[in-house]
From TrEMBL:
Organism of provenance: Flavobacterium ponti
SUPFAM superfamilies: DNA-glycosylase (SSF48150)
Top enzyme category: lyase
SMART domains attached to this UniProt entry: ENDO3c, FES
Gene for this chain: nth
Similarity field: Belongs to the Nth/MutY family.
Assigned keywords, A-Z: 4Fe-4S, DNA damage, DNA repair, Endonuclease, Glycosidase, Hydrolase, Iron, Iron-sulfur, Lyase, Metal-binding, Nuclease
Transmembrane portions of the chain: none
Protein's name in the database: Endonuclease III domain-containing protein
E.C. code: 4.2.99.18
Length: 210
């Protein structure tokens, strides 16, 4: 596939998932930030359950900053790595409460404990901010080598760098999440539903399989 065809070839996928919200169910930036920290190495479905009691106890960043990591941890015991995450969340809440502003750019977001590039890119996309990278989660790591966009590597930051080199900037904000939804719904680890994929004619995996 030619480099200059990527935007055109991926457009059906972008059209399908454009403006679809992330599976984390949140009401505002505060909730989204805390939930992306909690969701690392855990499922979105589990975090959507945990958030109910959590945000009832901590409805805003001020209430969270007045708590403690020990108290916070008691509300997230079903979350993987909850002990470290409670420390990260308390530190993050304390920093934001002091600064009085939620960070809304990638450099400031990744300075927060528990927020990597993937989480920062999710926040920027969901808040309709200017894209500074491409969302790369476990689904994207699986999908893009199958399509033929990158080699088969497991390092999300390396995958993101390669995608940023390959894909035009104007699709950055949507394509990462579109790849993620594709991986969740169709391009599954085993027995992918290739016949249902809107970009299968441009996919190396599908071509080799056919």
């Amino acid at each position: 596939m030619l480099f200059n065809n990527w935007k055109e070839n991926l457009q059906p996928l972008i059209n399908k998932y454009k403006d679809k919200k992330h599976p984390l169910v949140y009401d505002n930036l505060y909730e989204l930030l805390i939930m992306v920290i909690l969701s690392a190495q855990d499922s979105d479905a589990n975090i959507n359950k945990v958030k109910v009691n959590f945000f009832e106890k901590y409805p805003n960043i001020t209430s969270l900053s007045k708590s403690s990591s020990g108290e916070i941890s008691s509300y997230i015991t079903s979350v993987k790595n909850y002990s470290n995450k409670s420390n990260w969340i308390f530190e993050t809440a304390s920093i934001i409460q002091i600064n009085k502003n939620f960070p809304t750019n990638l450099d400031d977001l990744i300075k927060l404990k528990g927020v990597g590039r993937k989480s920062a890119n999710v926040i920027l996309r969901e808040m309709n901010k200017k894209a500074e990278g491409i969302i790369v989660d476990l689904h994207v790591i699986r999908v893009v080598p199958r399509i033929g966009l990158t080699p088969e590597i497991k390092d999300g930051n390396k995958i993101e760098k390669l995608l940023m080199q390959q894909l035009p900037y104007e699709i950055w904000n949507e394509i990462g999440m579109a790849f993620s939804f594709l991986g969740r719904e169709i391009c599954r680890p085993k027995n992918p539903k290739c016949d249902l994929c809107s970009i299968n004619i441009h996919c190396q995996y599908f071509q080799q399989k056919s």
